[in-house]
Specification:
Structural class: alpha+beta
Number of helices: 8
Largest sheet: 5 strands, antiparallel
Order of helices and strands: HEEHHHHEEEHEEHH
Distance between the termini: 76 Å
Number of strands: 7
Helix content: 25-40%
Shape: elongated
């Protein structure tokens, strides 16, 4: 009883969910059990999830191929860590990171179960996207600037330079100058 109570407590406060699925001889996957933040992440109860067709029914259409490749690896008895999107019950997409471990049945000579855990990484993906967009905007501004723009660290080592600056110092690419002291690459007249 004590162990069960601990298990329920851990499951109720977890931000991830854990699961086990069984695989029949035809490779059909069926949910055995799920615990933790399953309903919070997917929006479905376990019963609703089974009723709508299980896992493949909530995988985002653009990620079905990746999910199929992950399943092939699992059936080949390889562990898989994967990031894909799902479609929640409310119709909104969410990014998840899935950790899946195949369970090999020696007598059957095949994988008969997959156990794993799933994390909601939607906020992380949104933050990464915002950083990329910001970097792209900065890059566009730097590339459009007709004057030399350079980024240096505190010791004067070049971190980046726009095309106008590269042209001024007659360099073909930033790779030729990044990591060097600015005084070593800029002619004395331009320093």
């Amino acid at each position: 009883r004590e162990s069960e109570e601990r298990y329920r407590l851990i499951s109720s406060i977890s931000t991830d969910y854990m699961y086990a699925t069984g695989l029949d001889e035809n490779g059909e996957v069926g949910l055995d059990w799920v615990t933790g933040a399953f309903e919070k992440i997917t929006g479905y109860t376990q019963e609703e999830f089974i009723e709508i067709g299980g896992w493949r029914s909530i995988v985002h259409p653009d990620d079905l191929e990746k999910d199929q490749e992950d399943l092939k690896r699992l059936l080949a008895n390889e562990s898989v860590v994967s990031e894909i999107r799902i479609v929640r019950k409310n119709g909104k997409s969410a990014w998840i990171r899935s950790y899946a471990q195949p369970i090999w049945d020696i007598a059957a000579g095949r994988v008969t179960k997959i156990c794993g855990a799933v994390q909601d990484i939607t906020e992380q993906k949104l933050a990464e996207s915002a950083v990329r967009e910001s970097e792209d905007r900065l890059r566009s501004i730097l590339n459009a600037e007709p004057e030399c723009v350079k980024l240096l660290d505190r010791s004067g080592v070049l971190l980046d330079m726009n095309p106008a600056g590269l042209k001024m110092i007659e360099a073909d690419s930033t790779e030729q100058v990044v990591g060097r002291k600015i005084g070593d690459i800029v002619a004395p007249a331009h320093r």
